[in-house]
Amino acid sequence: MSTKHELILRYIEGLTVGEKISVRQVARALSVSEGTAYRAIKEAENQKFVNTIERVGTIRIEKKKKENIERLTFAEVLNIVDGLVLGGRDGLHKTLTKFVIGAMQLEDMMRYIDAGSLLIVGNRLKAHETALLAGAAVLVTGGFDASDDVKKLADELELPVISTSYDTFTVATMLNRAIYDQLIEKEILLVEDIVTPLTETITLLAKEKVTHFNDVNHKTSHSGYPVVESNGNLVGIITSRDAIGKSEDELIEKVMTRHPITVTGKTSVASAGHSMIWEGIDLMPVVTESGLLVGIISRQDVLKAFQMTQRQPQQGETIDDIVKNQIKIIPDQPHLFEFTVIPQVTNQFGSLSYGAMTTLITEVGNRVVKMRKRGESVPENMTLYFIKHVQLGSLVVIEPRILHISRRFAKVDFDVFTEGEIVAKAMIMYQLFER
């Protein structure tokens, strides 16, 4: 049975794209409290099928597919540039395909403008009208206004005309940054990308007996199974360790592990993988906010996901990506690694930042452990000492030493040098992610 929260989300998702949504309207339509409606609307905003715009309200927008996430809606553009809607408010939910900077003659400009574009231009009134007639929205920079005719045309065509106080260069930079951030988000693997769905998951009922578990386990040889109630709510998980030595007539609910560690579809694969390592579990149920089982992920699924992401081309690089791509093994000394300090990894003083140094040392340790023992590793704790600042342009040499390695742990010591002088020392304990 669906919860009120899930019913509201389904109701919102079923609304027409562009329709306005209010807490009071949802509460009245579904006979729920305004608090329940508010929480569901916020969740819909997190799931990116509604957007809240200052002075406009909350509207239903097109939910972006992950492969298309680098596209912005005009509503998002409005928020990014702190804009004011001059006309065409009903088109804010639409998605823009590209933006064009109007820094050329009008006839030249029109060669680049087509339906779905966003023209970024100053107070060139003729360009505003021409762009709208071509099916493009308009972003007027410098705080300028648009003519009454343009505003009326925008309302008729449902194409937004937005005004912002920022200049054209600043606006283009802000939109580029937003698209870049979404490219990074696109590359983050979520549990929903790798989950084995409920239709392919073997589940057991709490009221069934251990003999049924033994039969299923003999046929499939899986390591464990989620245990659910008749309504689909997850109540536990059962593995061979739970059932061994138990009477075959014992109920599963008596021997299962209650309150297992779970994740939702929006949890990152990295976070789920770390939990599996730290808790020493091979199977993790995936549930909704209300506890309904939607599938499972296994340790093998997480390992495959890690391997797949390492082979993907980077489109939106994070600081971690930049640091990792700069690390090189010194050719004639394979036990040493080098790194050049570039502007992106410096702090306000022009020296290597604490965060970048942490990433640098952690990644070198990961590589050394992988050379010794194949598989993934996760840093559990770290001690780092900065001895001297490392300036921009410096060549950093890292010398890692594995002090101890076992089946589940590795302890690695690091010396960090610049121009032959030691500038930092570190010690990291890694947990090993066995295959």
UniProtKB/TrEMBL annotation:
The keyword Ligase does not apply. SMART domains: CBS (SM00116). Residues 183-254, 256-314 form the CBS domain. Keywords: CBS domain. Gene3D superfamilies: CBS-domain, Hotdog Thioesterase, HprK N-terminal domain-like, Winged helix-like DNA-binding domain superfamily/Winged helix DNA-binding domain. It holds the Pfam family CBS. PROSITE patterns: CBS (PS51371). This is Transcriptional regulator. It comes from Sporosarcina limicola.
